[in-house]
Amino acid sequence: MIDRLEFIIALAREGHFGRAAEACRVSQPTLSAGIKFLEDMFGVLLVQRGSRFRGFTPEGERVLEWARRIVGDARAMRADVDALKRGLVGHLRVAAIPTALAMSAMLTTPYRAKHPGVRFTILSRTSLQVLSMIENLEVDAGLTYLDNEPLGRVKSVPLYREEYRLLTSRAAPLGDREQVTWKEVAKIPLCLLTPDMQNRRILDGLLRLAGGEPAPTLESNSVIVLFAHVRSGHWATIMPGKLAETLGLTDNVRSIPIVEPQVTHAVGLVVPDREPTTPLLTALIAEARVLAKILDQPSAKASEASGARPTGDKRRARIEKASTRAPRP
User: Fold this and answer.
1) pTM
2) Which residue blocks in the chain are alpha helix, DSSP H?
3) Which site in 54, 110, 189, 309 is 20 to 30 Å from 292, CA atoms measured?
C-alpha cells in the first residue's frame, strides 16, 4: 500500500508517467498498475485519462494529500525506530535559497560535531522549489524566507533577518559613501539574481518603489557568480549583509548599508508540519534554535561594513566558537 502511495507522490512531482516510474525504480506498467489498484480500491478515477499525464481529478488531489501525510508518517516512524536501535544516524536533505546557502554551514557544522553519524545533502533551490520539495517528501527541511510569500503547511524557526547592502568597488559610483538610498541604487547598473528567485522579487519591488525599473546588466541563479563579478571591480550588486560577511569582503569591495527605507526580511528553517518529527529533524530544530540566538544581532556595524577590511572571517570565527560551546539540546 505504501509503495502505491509513493507512485502517486512521484507522479505529482514529476508530472510524467515515465519519469515517475523511473524515480520509483519500477517499470511504467508497474506504476500504472499501482495507480489503477488505488482507483479500484477507492472506486473513483484519480488521474485524468489521456495519452499524457494531464493532472489529478478532485478525488485524486485528495488522495495525494493523504498519500503525502501517510508516506511521511511511515518514513518518520521507520526513522524513529531506527534511532532507537542505532542512535542518531542517517541522511538529512536540505534545500536552501541561494542567499542562505553560505549560512547553512553554521547549522550543519555544529550539528555534525554532536552527531557524526549523520550525513547531509544541501541543494540550491528557489523558495517555491524549497516548499514544493518539502511537500513532495524530496527533502527533509529547507532554508528560506519566512515573511514575504505564503509558506503553506510547515513549521518554522526564524534564524536571522536579511539586511541589504550595496556591494561595489571603492572607485565605482557610490563606492565612497557610508550609506546609500534605494533611489540612488536604482540609478546604477546592477548584477542580480534571476527573476525566479524570491530575493530578486524583493529587490525588484524595492527598486520600483524607489522610482527605478530593474534592468540588470547580468543575471545569475548563483550568488557566487554575482560576488565574483563584484570582486573584479567592474560590477555592483545588492546582497544580504550577513551573506556578504560570510563570503568575505576584500580591500576593493565595500558593503554599504541601503536606507530610506531600511528593509529586512526573516530567513529561517522550515520543516514539515508533522508530529512527531523524526529524531534527525528534532535535533536539527534544536540546533537551529541555538544558531538563532547567535545570529540575533545586527550584521557588521555600518562603520565596519563600509571599512577597508573584511569582517566575515571574524564574525564566522565568533559564530563557530559560540556554536561549539552551545549546550547539547
Assistant:
1) 0.74
2) 2-14, 17-23, 28-42, 58-86, 98-101, 105-114, 127-135, 182-185, 198-209, 223-231, 241-247, 279-295, 302-305, 312-325
3) 309
